[in-house]
Specification:
The protein has one domain: Cytochrome P450 (Cytochrome p450). It contains 17 helices and eleven strands. The strands form three sheets. A six-stranded mixed sheet has the order 1-2-3-9-6-4. Strands 5-11-10 form a three-stranded antiparallel sheet. A hairpin with a 4-residue loop joins β2 and β3. α7 packs antiparallel against α9, α10 packs across α11 and α11 packs across α13. The N and C termini lie far apart (53 Å). The N terminus is likely disordered.
Length: 409
């Protein structure tokens, strides 16, 4: 993209978002960008970056000026077919509607016993090892498996496939880092992501065939899509890709949120002790973790109109736009002292679960999983320490700790 006349009014920076040092703590740099203006052009990635809560929300909500249609090819590459995340038309609502009821709050709450059992199956052996004096990485030995097991059970997947599901999903998630990294390492991450998608798609395709051959709709999520009336209008690759994305979304994001919760409470033991004393604070504590340690740092859009504007600044039709969710969630015009982690602050909606048409389908499930996880952690390991520095790797698009070593306090 060349710097046209519109770009003259837009400050320009040249920053590699997949740089390791930047990703360890991107917030000071993003604050510098915020001081430059409402929109900053990153010449390294040729994208317009949006930083305020208000402007990010407007971009995410205004599908007539900024939409996701450019993501169609990306989703085909990532998941093997188009899913609802890349559609901004009424078809999005129809596709989302297949599973919408299953993720409503009251329906999800009915899964509490299942989720509690899954959480205990991962926390109990982890806590036993930590109490014995070991330093244990919480991600592979606890948090990663929880949402994988939950979504696998909801999809009706065989128990023996759970570990492979997790590894495939991890590979897909790491592709986000490769997306911004033109180096050989980035190419390798993208190749591994494609391989993970292929393996998961092949499994889901076979599972879909088995459901059809059985002929009787089950209560699992795969069956619900296969036998839904809307499925007749979906291409086979769309059905497969939708199930594959659900596995990924149900595992990668929630697992990283749980890891981020461990880090936040580990760095703020006084607030962790407050949660031990008053469990009613847990829901708002989780939301504060999600605001303070935003996982999905960017929800990409592109300008799709000659009238596309952000804060009065014209954005060229077709230009790539990056609503920087982490910056929005630390906007000082919305939150007082936003860089401070404070579970007692006045609750306000953040953008961690998205905004507008594409707000996260599984947000109620993620919240319940995280709350049960925190409850059991405080019951079984109320005192712990972070045993070393936390590495956030290079994956800015899906930012989270790559390891969380935990020791007995």
């Amino acid at each position: 993209m060349s710097l046209d006349s519109d770009l003259v009014r837009v400050p320009t920076v040249d920053v590699n978002l997949s740089d390791w040092e930047f990703n360890q703590n991107p917030y000071p740099v993003m604050e510098e960008w915020r001081s430059l203006g409402p929109v900053v052009f990153n010449s390294r990635h040729e994208r317009y970056m949006v930083l305020s809560y208000r402007n990010c929300a407007k971009v995410l909500a205004n599908v007539t000026q900024f939409n996701s249609q450019r993501m169609v090819e990306f989703f085909k590459m990532t998941f093997g077919g188009v899913t609802m995340e890349a559609i901004d038309t009424p078809r999005h609502h129809e596709m989302r509607g297949v599973w919408a009821e299953d993720f409503q709050r009251d329906v999800v709450i009915a899964q509490r016993q299942l989720i509690s059992e899954v959480v205990a199956s991962r926390i109990d052996p982890f806590v036993e090892r930590v109490r014995s004096g070991e330093i244990v990485d919480a991600i592979p030995h606890m948090t990663r498996g929880i949402p994988t097991l939950v979504i696998a059970k909801m999809l009706g997947i065989e128990t023996e496939m759970y570990e492979e599901f997790s590894s495939w999903s991890d590979a897909i998630g790491n592709g986000g880092e490769g997306f911004l990294d033109p180096s050989p390492r980035g190419a390798k991450l993208l190749a591994d992501s494609v391989a993970g998608t292929k393996a998961l798609n092949e499994y889901m395709a076979a599972a879909i065939v088995r459901r059809r051959e059985h002929g009787v709709p089950g209560q699992d999520l795969v069956s619900k899509m296969v036998f839904d009336d809307f499925a007749a209008s979906m291409a086979e690759e769309e059905i497969v890709a939708s199930n594959t994305q659900l596995v990924f979304a149900g595992n990668e994001t929630t697992a990283k949120l749980m890891a981020a919760t461990l880090v936040a409470l580990g760095k703020h033991p006084d607030q962790r002790r407050a949660l031990v004393a008053d469990r009613s604070l847990i829901p708002q504590a989780f939301e504060e973790v999600h605001r303070w340690e935003t996982l999905v740092q960017n929800l990409p859009r592109h300008a799709c109109s000659d009238e596309s504007q952000i804060a009065g600044i014209s954005i060229p039709n077709g230009a790539e736009v990056m609503p920087l969710i982490g910056a929005a969630n630390r906007d000082p015009s919305r939150w007082e002292n936003p860089d401070k982690f404070d579970i007692f602050r006045e609750p306000k909606q953040h953008l961690g679960f998205g905004f507008g048409m594409h707000v996260c389908l599984g947000l109620n499930l993620a919240r319940l999983e995280a709350q049960i996880f925190i409850e059991q952690l405080l019951d079984k390991l109320p005192d712990y320490e972070l045993a070393g520095d936390i590495d956030y790797g290079r994956n800015f698009l899906l930012r989270g700790p790559s390891a969380v070593p935990i020791a007995r306090a």
